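User: quick one, sequence for these C-alpha cells?
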C-alpha cells in the first residue's frame, strides 16, 4: 500500500505562484511515475502533469508553459511549481501513482491507470 499526502495549496491572486508537494510512503517510490490531476466544482477531473521514474515529463495543454513538475527521490516527493496562475486554475489538486513503463501522454493522462491517490489540496486563484 502507498500513501500520498499533498500540501502547499492556498489562496493566491491571479499571476501569482504556488508550489505543491506530494509526499509518498514506501521504499519503491523511485520506480513509480507520479501524476497530478485537478477537479473544479461541476467539472470533470483534468490531467495536469506527470513525471516518470527517469524524469520524463508530460503536461496538459491548459498548463503547459506555466507549470513545472519535478521529483526528489531522496525525499519521496514530487513537486508541482505553478506560475502565472489564473482563476481557471482553481481546483482541488491530487497526486497519484502509476507504473512508469508507458511512453505516451495518452496513458499518463488516463486516471483509470493510476493505482494510489492522495486526498487533495485546495488551490484558489482570485481575480
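Assistant:
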Amino acid at each position: 500500500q502507498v500513501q500520498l499526502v499533498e500540501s502547499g495549496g492556498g489562496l493566491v491572486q491571479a499571476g501569482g505562484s504556488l508550489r505543491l508537494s506530494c509526499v509518498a510512503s514506501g521504499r519503491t517510490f523511485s520506480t513509480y511515475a507520479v501524476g497530478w490531476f485537478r477537479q473544479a466544482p461541476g467539472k470533470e477531473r483534468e490531467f495536469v502533469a506527470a513525471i516518470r521514474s527517469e524524469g520524463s515529463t508530460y503536461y496538459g495543454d491548459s498548463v503547459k508553459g506555466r507549470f513545472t513538475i519535478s521529483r526528489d527521490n531522496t525525499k519521496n516527493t514530487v513537486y508541482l511549481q505553478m506560475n502565472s496562475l489564473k482563476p481557471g486554475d482553481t481546483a482541488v489538486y491530487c497526486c497519484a501513482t502509476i507504473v512508469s513503463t508507458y511512453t505516451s501522454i495518452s496513458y499518463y493522462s488516463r486516471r483509470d491507470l493510476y493505482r494510489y491517490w492522495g486526498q487533495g489540496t485546495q488551490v484558489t486563484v482570485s481575480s
